[in-house]
Specification:
6-stranded antiparallel sheet, globular
């Protein structure tokens, strides 16, 4: 893991520690993060923690009291950073997030500290009160260690009952007292006092947005994607380490994978889908030397390493693998196929490191690690493309609000063909019309009522999924297995949120739902990066860069809701970049979803999962009853139509709690008795959830 951490102290404290680099901790030992490098010192110190590369940490000074730190991949020059620092001193923040790349910017102007989060939520910012001031970090666990925070059971309940509803999650984290800055916002600290400010303009709901030109919008997406790839190609190449030597029976790629060493240089996923294929072709086709380093590893010269995962345990993706092979015929690509057997199915290997937060990807981390181990030191992934380009079903209500009914014809016709019923248009139009006329507060109250009455049955099939999504808020897939107390607690949170949200979220329902889904995906991708991390490797998700997210948000609704819109947009992006020879069927949606692999893995791991929930920590916390979850695991393994993603939520949270309580280290030196988060563990008790409420 890599993060930055610091604090803003009061003026009185600053006078007492003017020349130190960290507070005085236990027995005179300096309080500072373990394994850190100091970026600047007291009274408001900032550290970078973890295995940051030299080019990923940049600090530009205007004078002793005004400076900017940028951590990550940022395309701004030092002069641009200096101009950005001067502009930020006047209070303008948006430009700090408009450079190409994926990074976190921290600005110090006198005693004012500004930390900017990103738009998607893949690079979050956290804060917590500490020692009369405010501590902040880009990870929640260091702040939980610093403050010896206990678990926030209310947040954990909301994470299972309503993971895509901001009114239930609020700004909380799994750690009590540690708060999260919402995507699109920045944390501003003045001598210890904190303020959360938004840096994105808010569109008016009184009138419809001016019509956007589809061609110009797609051109903007192309330019943002090309720039996002180019800034990563321009970064220095990294060689993870020297290969210690040959192993009998192993080739270079197998030897590196066995030793956990990525290939030097740059590579990309090539699944056969449009997102990863677009990034691989863009990276291979841009001027320069995009691929592996000559003389290191495969001997592929400067060809881009393209990695395809072929799941032999579960079929159904043969067409995608074939398309990936056709794409890899490009002479600037070096194709590697990683095969997976039963040992790479979900739930097959549940061992792994402790992540900052829980996430459903913990059950599939070993599966991803098998693919990434054959990848490059810098590896492109197509994560986030579906969330930023596809139309959430609730966007149909946005079209009605904007009086664009004619654009409902294509998506409704596609659903009609999938279902085969002539009643589909009326059902979909009626649901979209109801949502367009439903206030946000009413939507939260309806969800609270559903949780209280345990109404979780939803229509089946593509049409049923679309109808269920045409709402302001919906229960999570794991909600059906929570205790009545946990559901009641989340229901109360929603009722309270409804009382505070009289004016609504300031967005149309479709746009609002799309942003919450994006935030959920970005948070889980962050968990995946930590759980499946390969030493010396960096995963790059350009679709989650700020400028790419902005460009995708500007796509007109009428273009976005068309069937196959994502593939059409990415095809146009590639054509604009000079790539036209795409294989037949490129962009065709896959009918073999990950559900087949999840069910196969669940069936093989059923006994171990039942043992995991023999005496679960979730039951000690009052969130579930052990026998209910064990019964659900057995039924799902037997083929019952239960929501598998809900079981993944339960299993991953149980795994995360076990890893958190099993740790013995801490992120800090100088704390009394090596203080760490959740020092007392979880004590079995009733009413535990109420203790986590603010």
């Amino acid at each position: 893991m890599r993060w930055l951490v610091g604090w803003s102290s009061t003026a009185a404290r600053a006078l007492g520690a003017a020349d130190s680099a960290g507070a005085t901790g236990c027995e005179g030992e300096t309080l500072r993060p373990v394994g850190s490098q100091l970026l600047w010192g007291d009274p408001d110190p900032l550290w970078a923690v973890g295995d940051w590369r030299p080019d990923e940490v940049r600090v530009v000074h205007a004078d002793a009291q005004n400076r900017i730190a940028v951590l990550g991949i940022c395309g701004a020059s030092d002069e641009e950073l200096r101009r950005g620092l001067f502009t930020a001193r006047g209070g303008a923040l948006r430009h700090l997030t408009a450079w190409p790349g994926s990074y976190t910017a921290v600005v110090q102007a006198g005693r004012r500290i500004t930390v900017c989060g990103d738009l998607a939520g893949a690079r979050p910012v956290f804060h917590a009160p500490w020692d009369g001031g405010t501590s902040y970090a880009t990870a929640a666990l260091p702040l939980a260690d610093l403050t010896e925070a206990n678990l926030d059971f209310g947040h954990l309940a909301a994470l299972l009952a309503a993971p895509e509803v901001p009114a239930a999650l609020r700004d909380t984290t799994p750690y009590e007292g540690v708060r999260r800055v919402a995507p699109g916002h920045a944390l501003v600290l003045r001598a210890g006092a904190r303020e959360i400010v938004g840096y994105e303009p808010v569109a008016s709901l009184a009138v419809a947005a001016p019509p956007a030109d589809p061609d110009r919008a797609v051109d903007a997406v192309r330019d943002a994607l090309v720039e996002a790839v180019r800034v990563r190609l321009a970064a220095p190449r990294h060689v993870p380490g020297l290969d210690p030597g040959p192993v009998p029976g192993m080739g270079p790629a197998e030897r590196r994978a066995a030793r956990g060493m990525p290939v030097p240089g740059i590579g990309a996923d090539l699944s056969g889908g449009p997102a990863s294929g677009t990034l691989a072709l863009l990276a291979a086709g841009l001027p320069g030397r995009p691929g592996t380093l000559l003389g290191h590893g495969t001997g592929a010269g400067e060809r881009l390493l393209a990695v395809t995962f072929n799941d032999l345990a579960v079929g159904g993706r043969e067409a995608e693998v074939e398309r990936a092979g056709a794409l890899a015929a490009n002479p600037r690509l070096h194709h590697v196929v990683v095969t997976g057997a039963e040992d790479t199915l979900p739930y097959a290997d549940l061992e792994g490191p402790l992540t900052d937060e829980p996430g459903p990807s913990l059950v599939t981390a070993a599966r991803h690690r098998a693919r990434l181990a054959a990848g490059s030191a810098d590896h492109f992934t197509g994560h986030g493309a579906r969330q930023v380009l596809d139309a959430h079903p609730a966007r149909l209500a946005d079209l009605l609000l904007d009086r664009q009914r004619r654009h409902l014809v294509r998506p409704v016709a596609a659903l009609t063909r999938a279902d085969g019923s002539v009643l589909v248009p009326a059902r979909v139009y009626g649901a979209a019309r109801r949502l367009s006329r439903t206030p946000y507060r009413t939507g939260l109250e309806a969800l609270a009522e559903r949780l209280m009455r345990r109404r979780f049955d939803e229509p089946k099939g593509p049409v049923g999924a679309s109808l269920a999504a045409l709402t302001w808020a919906r229960p999570g897939p794991a909600a059906r297995w929570l205790t009545g107390e946990a559901l009641a607690e989340v229901s109360v949170l929603l009722q309270t949120g409804a009382d505070r949200a009289a004016g609504g979220p300031g967005q149309r329902p479709g746009e609002f739902r799309a942003r919450t889904v994006l935030a959920r995906h970005a948070a889980d991708l962050r968990v995946l990066e930590q759980a499946a991390e390969v030493r010396s490797q960096r995963l790059h998700a350009p679709f989650l860069d700020n400028q790419v997210v902005r460009a995708c948000r500007d796509l007109p609704e009428a273009l976005r809701v068309r069937p196959g819109a994502r593939a059409a947009v990415l095809r146009t992006v590639l054509e604009g970049a000079g790539v036209t020879d795409l294989p037949p069927g490129w962009g065709t949606p896959s009918h073999a979803s990950s559900a087949a692999a999840a069910r196969a893995g669940l069936r093989l791991a059923a006994d171990s999962l039942v043992d995991l929930f023999d005496t679960p920590l979730l039951a000690d916390a009052g969130l579930v009853e052990a026998r209910v979850v064990r019964k659900a695991v057995r039924e799902a393994a037997a083929g019952e139509p239960l929501p598998l993603d809900g079981l993944a939520d339960l299993v991953s949270l149980e795994l995360w709690l076990g890893r958190l309580l099993a740790r013995r280290g801490t992120c800090w030196t100088g704390t009394p008795a090596r203080a760490r988060a959740v020092p007392a563990g979880i004590a079995p008790q009733r009413g535990a959830l109420r203790a986590g409420r603010p």
